[in-house]
């Protein structure tokens, strides 16, 4: 087999054939790799690796996967964007499958492995979401970042993986045996006034997360566009957060950008993150964090529990950080929402954090000490609400900026300086995408009785007191994906 390492047994070679995709599927206009037709793989995979993640680990993984599989089914995200790759492969599959049952079966069984941080995984999810296939490609996330919340939520672990042949093959075996699990997508719209002078954006595009800077801004003809404003839109799958926690994250990312040589080890990265939590004042927020930057002073927060009905959300004055959570994994695997007990479900209408119920959990934190309650059994943050939509409206106030974060990627957000100015951030439900989950999956599905049950619901701590189809938006990460009119796309939704 082209590009395959010499293994210790025939069984290993047979195992790898279950994942192997021949060249003529991957490279347009190339000839079939074998005659008679090649063995149909039961789990054909496309592997996307951020070679810059995890220090040297990303580069090492790239070499191992390329040696075990066809090197043309392994992609370095630093060299080729995923939407370009998937566009090329899917156009080729569309041309082949009408006369090639093998190609049709490959398309039906195709899975994705993505190795990188949460931002990288979110990038792939955005691209796959934009393809709008009737059966979207399910994705397995290999942890290669600092927090690794997405992999942890679906049972792939949070420690950086081994990069040797046996470790990679063990991961591939899990991918083959993994089950598909739907999760909610969340669309985020951010609108701010354009500068009165000059052509510069309020935020440098490269400072924004992948899911926002990939679209940059909506076009002038888009109905979301407003004259005099710059409008960004994108998506997320794990969380959106704002306030003190995002400030610490921003300090970490800024330091790593200035001194990348110091961030080659996951343990060192996590230690540095903890130190920055101290130096940024997160543990002594009452002394070092001005009350003018508390969430209630920065923004008016509104939620929509039922379609078309906005209501103002009461946010306690002490809350310095707010998290809008889709998955039960935040800050390296902690679960801020927990599982409300039967009394809270009855009195407040709260539910467990299902990942496919069209609801996002809104949680608040006062400071890092408050956050440490998550380390205790059944601990959780201040549960503020569950909603189908949430809106933050920022007006001129005591702060000229705040910090925001999407799936681990932070940025510094300018706030209004004029009385007639407003910065708007709105989050709404946007369909679903397929993930791959192992038997150790921590996420719960409202439609899957086999997902983790709520054993500890009545031991809950007492620490704290769907959108219409016309509103659906592209995430934009795959904005270059266009299937020509002459290609049969009758199977696409």
TrEMBL record:
Pfam families: DAGK_acc (PF00609), DAGK_cat (PF00781). Gene3D superfamilies: 2.60.200.40, Probable inorganic polyphosphate/atp-NAD kinase, domain 1. InterPro entries: ATP-NAD_kinase_N (IPR017438), DGK (IPR037607), Diacylglycerol_kin_accessory (IPR000756), Diacylglycerol_kinase_cat_dom (IPR001206), Diacylglycerol_kinase_pln (IPR016961), NAD/diacylglycerol_kinase_sf (IPR016064). Residues 441-472 are annotated as: Disordered. Keywords: ATP-binding, Kinase, Nucleotide-binding, Plant defense, Stress response, Transferase. GO terms for cellular component: membrane. Residues 459-468 have a biased composition (Acidic residues). Residues 40-192 form the DAGKc domain. SUPFAM superfamilies: NAD kinase/diacylglycerol kinase-like (SSF111331). SMART domains: DAGKa, DAGKc. One of its GO terms (molecular function) is ATP-dependent diacylglycerol kinase activity. Its EC number is 2.7.1.107. It is an enzyme of class 2 (transferase). Monomer. PANTHER family: DIACYLGLYCEROL KINASE, DIACYLGLYCEROL KINASE 5. Belongs to the eukaryotic diacylglycerol kinase family. Phosphorylates the second messenger diacylglycerol (DAG) to generate phosphatidic acid (PA), another important signaling molecule. PA is required for plant development and responses to abiotic stress and pathogen attack. May be involved in the accumulation of PA during cold stress. This is Diacylglycerol kinase.
